[in-house]
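INFO batch 0412 | record 1 of 1 | parsing
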Amino acid sequence: MRKYDGTYIFVGLAKDDNVDALLDKAQSEITRLNGVVVNTEVLGKRTFARPMNKKESGVYARIRFEMDPAKVNALRDRYLIMEDMFRVQLQVVDERREATLAEQAVKFKAREEARQAAAEAAAEAAEENDYDDAVESDSDDYAADEV
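INFO prediction complete | emitting tokens
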């Protein structure tokens, strides 16, 4: 089984309830063909760059799923006869790219934590210097009063 990302565009929807119902239909087609839905994400309503079939905008959604590669064409055919779906794009997930992106995210997070720790240490050092300077200036004032 391979992982796929399906990007779906639904048009002519008035409420979010309709989006959920249409996503359930899309997911049921995946499970009907023995696929497994990994996650679902509604990307929101977006305006098209140019009108398509007299439609100005649509609600975008992404479904990540696992399925046997031999059944993907059957899934596409099922989506073509469903009138509710305006556009569907299915892409194979590149596992190496996903692993590289996850590794880069971990490195980025470690760098950000190190920067934040360094900034906090610098702030504490500056605070101590300000305190030491204040103590020295108070003692200088006290010494000047005695003379």
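INFO post-check: The chain has three helices and four strands.
INFO record closed
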